[in-house]
Amino acid sequence: MRLKSKGMQWLTALSLLTAGPALASEDFAVCTAQLADKALAQGVSQQTVDAIFPKLEYQARVIELDRSQPEFVQTFPGYFSKRVTDWRTTKGQEMLAKHEKLLNALNDKYGIPPHYLLAFWGLETNFGNYKGKMPVLDSLATLACDPRRSTYFTQELLVAVKLFERESLTKDEMVGSWAGAMGHTQFMPSAYTHYAVDGDDDGQINLWNSEEDALTSAANFLKSLGWKPGFRWGREVTLPEGFNFQLSGYKDRRSLSDWHELGVTKADGSPLGEDDTTAYVIVPAGHAGPAFIAYPNFRVIMRWNNSEFYAIAVGVLADRIAGAPGIKATLPDLPAYSRTDIIALQRKLNQLGYDVGKPDGIIGPATREGIRNYQIANKMIADGFPGLDVMAALKVTPSQTTS
């Protein structure tokens, strides 16, 4: 059946979509008909369009997940301890042995050491043990027909349809995250199209069923993101007594020689070394927690997933897979702040003249800067972290659940 353009009906569907997250089946059909015409206009065959678009199903759960916000704000100790585990380390070492020849070849070709590829794989899907169960084409169509991010997800859907055709995939095997990330390495369709590589030379790029394709694609992706061969991600460090925590964070990048002069050492106390490599200090759990120094490859990891917590987890897990012992510092026992707690904190800071923007319950750069300025003004350690001392000073009582 050829799906025809429905012009004004599409505009009507969009107006109905704006009214709320629920979408009637007839409106979804109008939307997907329009998407089908776009696919045809971009060169997708009629056969592929007929195989996909009439069978697309609206996924209400996808909209719920897109709109939902977690009740609690995860702190670094909670995040890190759940991701850098003995199981992932041991499994990563098993996979290192299993794919040793391939991983070494990828290192030679792309400059990505084996333990980093394995760390990404472990964090993304537990080495393929959980690749997601949501129907990717349905999920992307649902998000494309929702006005909030329609342009982005329309493009991702059309790319996914082209992948379906190019790689002779089936709709049933195209499963992944609710947002459309796919396969062992959780590539979005656009990343799949531009960076996925046929690692097992079978003539097909299948990131679900081929570990070789997935690892090769990850190496190609990281190289394209700017990975610097021969350099680490960063490392855990020990900060000197009386360290000025105003020097922490991405805005204060300095050479390793400068950090050496300031008394920063490796975690075991040995010299950091003198070099012109630019790096910055991170204290993800505040001054009472571990400290790390981040090299340029750290920012490459963040181009994969824009989270410092994620990048630290990748780096430390990679180190452990390669045989390192993990971090030396003890993770502090922090409460699991609720979003309500952080909103209360933000409101207090705004009231006191430390502008952190509209209270949203997210500890972003503006909130950290506001906390830091409050700490400076009140002669506290200016680490920009909402520690219990800051919460107490601002009379915000956090949740008692620890992270």
UniProtKB/TrEMBL annotation:
<dbReference type="InterPro" id="IPR002477">
    <property type="entry name" value="Peptidoglycan-bd-like"/>
</dbReference>
<dbReference type="Pfam" id="PF01471">
    <property type="entry name" value="PG_binding_1"/>
</dbReference>
<dbReference type="GO" id="GO:0008933">
    <property type="term" value="F:peptidoglycan lytic transglycosylase activity"/>
</dbReference>
<keyword id="KW-0732">Signal</keyword>
<dbReference type="GO" id="GO:0009253">
    <property type="term" value="P:peptidoglycan catabolic process"/>
</dbReference>
<dbReference type="InterPro" id="IPR043426">
    <property type="entry name" value="MltB-like"/>
</dbReference>
<feature type="domain" description="Transglycosylase SLT">
    <location>
        <begin position="28"/>
        <end position="319"/>
    </location>
</feature>
<feature type="domain" description="Peptidoglycan binding-like">
    <location>
        <begin position="339"/>
        <end position="394"/>
    </location>
</feature>
<dbReference type="InterPro" id="IPR036365">
    <property type="entry name" value="PGBD-like_sf"/>
</dbReference>
<dbReference type="InterPro" id="IPR036366">
    <property type="entry name" value="PGBDSf"/>
</dbReference>
<dbReference type="Pfam" id="PF13406">
    <property type="entry name" value="SLT_2"/>
</dbReference>
<feature type="signal peptide">
    <location>
        <begin position="1"/>
        <end position="24"/>
    </location>
</feature>
<dbReference type="InterPro" id="IPR031304">
    <property type="entry name" value="SLT_2"/>
</dbReference>
<dbReference type="InterPro" id="IPR011970">
    <property type="entry name" value="MltB_2"/>
</dbReference>
<protein>
    <submittedName>
        <fullName>Lytic murein transglycosylase</fullName>
    </submittedName>
</protein>
<dbReference type="InterPro" id="IPR023346">
    <property type="entry name" value="Lysozyme-like_dom_sf"/>
</dbReference>
